Amino acid sequence: MEEVLRFYYSSARNRIGAAGDFYTAADLDPIFGQLLAKQFEQWAAPFGRFTIVELGAGKGLLAHDILRHRHFPYMILERSPAMRRRQQELLKDHDVTWIDELPRGITGCIFSNEFFDALPVHRLVRRGDVLKEIYVTEDFHEIERDLQPPVPALYDRLGGDTPPLHEGQTVEVNLEARHWIRRIAESLHRGYHVAIDYGYLRDEFYAQPHGSLMCYWRHQAVENPYIRIGEQDITAHVNFSDLMEEPSLQTMLFTTQKDYLIQLGILDEMEKLATAGDSVSMQRLLRMKNLILPGSMGERFKVLVQSKQL
Predict the structure, then answer these.
(1) Which neighbouring-strand residues pair with 228?
(2) Fewer beta carbons within 10 Å, N or C terminal of the chain?
(3) pTM for the whole thing?
């Protein structure tokens, strides 16, 4: 899965937006970046210097919309050369630094939008009283094998050898997410971590009967990851409980994207557009509704806010 995702995101084809396979919030309307800039500005007030670090910035739209409203010291950690080139072209008029690793001593905010869901995962299945890991052969057939470290260690906290799965139930384990949250905590000296993504807390995460692995191709959901290999996005929901267990980060808020954006004032902005009444404002209003509608991004996406040494 890691190799396929690396190939997918390194492709010259634009994977994000109307011509790609999926949308992000920034593709819908610049209000998303505007409201995040407002949040960062509030957090930055007590500090002399407040640096923003974005993980996996896609086309760079969100960074562009944030920096239009406030000129923070801004870093982007992007490992896809193709994505980095797109970002550099879009952000050429802004003071942005691209980095390969998270630096130490950051005072500011490390944030991501749809980053953790794009990390490779291990897939497990329960067979009787044991867990098996699902592997893929060279000709893309699934086989099951006994678990190998470090996967079993993830379940020590559950008081048994297996997570609460039913017979035949599958689940994804994102070891990379745990590595990244540890790196984020080590990078932050003082400030915040924000993760915006689709996912669940642990109980709901393990309640999914078939796991959450899904593919997207030209905005169509696809259940089979063994077709159009390297040409369709592969993603899995985030277990936010894993991120919350990082001991040096304090969880301040876990909520839906809808409630978070309402808290930041999106309804006021929508009212202005409704009052204006022109066609451009109405089109923006319709797109903005997708950010908060329960059946769309509003409740599927969650927002985790953590802090360190405030």
Answers:
(1) none
(2) C
(3) 0.91
